[in-house]
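hi! just following up on the protien thing from before. the input was this:
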Amino acid sequence: MMKTNKEPLRAAMDRRLSFLDDLPSCRAALHSRIAQEAPVMKKKLSVGLVFALVLVLLAAAALAAGLLLSPRVSAARTADLALKEQFGVTEEMQTFFTRNEAGQPDGSVIVTYTGAGSLEYVLGTYTAVVKNNKAEITWSREGEDTSGGYEADCWGLDQLKQMMADGAKEDKAFLEKAEKIAEKHLSAELPPLPEAEGDSYEKKEADKTAAMNARKLSEEEMIAIGREFILTNYNLNEEQIARMELYTNSIGEQQPNTWYEMINDAPCFQVEYLLYEEYPRELIDAGEPRPRTEMDGYYNVFVNVETGVVESFEYNSALNGLG
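and the predicted 3d structure came back as:
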C-alpha cells in the first residue's frame, strides 16, 4: 500500500484552507480525512460549503499526486515560458495571438503563436520547437524595425505593452491600425482564402454527448483538477485566488452536455474560471471601463473525462476585443 506523505500534503492543504480560519472544526475534519482518520464534524454544513470542501479535498489530492498533462499541454507550457523569457511576451499579451500545437514524428511539438485576426501581419508568428522539455523559439519578424509605435509596419514588445494599456481602457483602435497596415502590404490580387469547413451543429452535439457519456470522473473531480492547474500554471497570489469565480455550470438552464467537448479526439470537460474586479452595474451601463488588475480574464482548462489528463488550456485577458 502506498504511504501518504503527510507533511507536504498538510502544507498544501494549509495554502488552500485560509478561508476556513473561522471554522476550525471544518479544518480539523479535512486534515483528519486526508490522513485517513475518522473525521469529527461538530457543525452541520450547508450544501454549498460541502461542495467547496469536496473541491478542496480533490484539489489537494491532485496536488499531492501531481497533475497529469498531455504532451501538447506540457509543450505549450514550456513554449510559454520561452516566449516570455526570450521575447518578453507574457501570458496576458498572448491574448493578442492564436496558439496552436502540432506533434511531430520525432516526438517534438511545434508550438506557434500567430497574431490573431487583423493582428497577424504586424505581429507575425513566433514558432517554438519543443523537445525534451526545452524550447527553441524564433520570430518571423525578428530583425525588423519596430520603432514608431502603431505607425510601424512590424509590432514588437513596445507595441504589445501599449496594446495592453489601451485594451485596459477599452480602446481597441490598434485593431483598425493593424488592419490598414496589413492592407497596405498584402497584395489585393491574392485569391481569397477558402472558407474553413466547420463541423455541423449535429456533429458538434454528437461529439459533446459522446464526451459526456465517456465520463469516468465526476464533474467535481474534474473541476478540482482544472482549478489546480490554473493555480499552479499561473502562480496566482492569495488575493487573486480569492476572486476566482467558477463559470462552469453557472449559466441558467443548460443541456447536460454543455461543458463537454472533443479536444484532439479526446473526450473532455471544460473547466472555466473568471477573475475580475467587481464593478457596479450603473457604471457598466454608463460605459465606464471596468477597473482591471494583473491576470484578470478568463481561464479555461479541458480535462480528459476518462483519465483526468489536462488536454488543453487557454487564458484570455480580454484585452484584444476579439472575443
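The first strand starts at residue 97 and ends at 103.
DSSP finds eleven helices and nine strands in the chain.
cheers
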